[in-house]
Amino acid sequence: MFKQNNQPKLITFENELGDWQRQQLNETREKWFYRLIFRNINERDFKPLFSDKDSRPNAPVNVLVSAIILKEIKGWSYNELIDSVIFDLRTKAALGLSDIGEKPFSRATLFNFQNRIQAYEQETGTNLIEVVFNNLTTDQIKKLEVKTNIQRSDSTLIGSNIRNYSRLQLLIEALLRLYRKLTEEDKQRFSEQVKGYHQKGSEKYVYGLKSDDLPHELKDLGNLYKQLYDGLQGKYNDTYEWQIFERVFQEHFVVLEEKATARPSEVLGSDCLQSPDDWHAAYRNKRGEETTGYSYNVTETAHPDNSLQLIGDVATAPCNTDDSTLLNERIGPIKKKTPDLEEMHTDGGYGSPETDQTMEEEKVLHVTTAVKGRESQVQKTIEKPSEDSENYLVSCPRQTVESTPTKKRNKAVFDIQICNDCKLKDQCSIYKQNGRFYFTHDDYLKNRRNRNIDKIPLERRKIRPNVEATMREFVIRAPGNKLKVRGRFKASLFAFAVAIGINFGRIYRYIRENHPCFEKIKAQIYALAENLFSFWPFQEKLKVFQLKFKLQMEF
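and the corresponding structure tokens:
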């Protein structure tokens, strides 16, 4: 049964603290977390997770959600989270707990809560933690008057918490996991074929092989997979183990004339199953760095007039997903959340015909700081005289001509006599085509995207690199560039919790620098500096206490 936990308690453990302790607690980051995050979580969004019938009430939703967020902010394990909830007064304050002896949830309660959120997402397509992130961010942007018409985006790759399987080991592991799920009767049917793998396990079995044995082992596994697939079809299809087995069989083998033949390793795609423990994790080799896991795309505000910038959108995808594909999928939702979006800054990797088309439809100026692909040695510009015009104006350094449409493309014909006198003709592709230049609307959009950076003021041409520091904040929370969890749902849970934490940190630092209570503390410290160190030069004593104040307030 759903029950809200939104009534503040009149008497809490904080009343038992001394004045100095209470003052110190009120100034902590955790207390501001309570004010800015905990109190702004809408518990009613989670009502569909619970029964409508009269039954035992749920654990406090805002406490559970806040605990998930706090865990990622602090980089805690689940055990460390539970210990902090029990013993740390600051954590209790962050979670709005009134009783010093209160333990609002157990590990099982937290896991069950996450499982319900995951099941709800699978059923409806809505991630409730994403709803919390969107609601908090929308409210923060509004209250802090953050301008959202200029934004920037970047991505990073982080590995899933899975072991690295060789191809043969993965095949054996998927086979053994299905075998353990079989009834005793079915185990007896295939016991002799599986016996060798079952006795040693996938790791020890592969360890004892020589490289010359691999083709023969793949052949034997192909035959065994085919036998199991045909013999058990329809009996275990609803189990996760069968779905893994079936996927591996279809990805690694091809059936010809009732025989399963292993596909060549070079034709296996990066989206093939990497581990039985993570259905969605993919493989990617980016600039020599291998990752098996997920790609995180983050978009944040970037208007130079903003006092602080906030993350407004986070997307999680298998790590072999191209940056341009991710951005193309997210532009619509981003525009819905921030309708005034006019300008998006990215690196060159986000450029694609599909993204260019979407940006044109959404009326967003896409500014890239690097051009994807080889640039022409002779610069050409393609422009439209008007939005309704079917023709284009194509310019080179010496002339401008109007194009005419052909069946599939557009054609611009340059005066070859002018080209003959041009000093750049040896590097010009138009000259080599006898003055003819063919292009499509996609080429026009790409040409316009590459020139967008020249259309904006100089002070806005270098605002994209700052988002790389934001991506770094995600990476440092995954030691060794590897998550502590596996699976797309938990990987996305990590992303939303970290994004909420990053925004909270920025707002907290902003408040700390501008809130009257902090200004009062500063004034008191500086006044104390003058009295205690009257024999010191004024500038020296000020430096001492400025440093002391900074050390006290940083964490």
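(Above: one complete record from the training split.) Confidence is low (pLDDT under 50) at residues 548-555.
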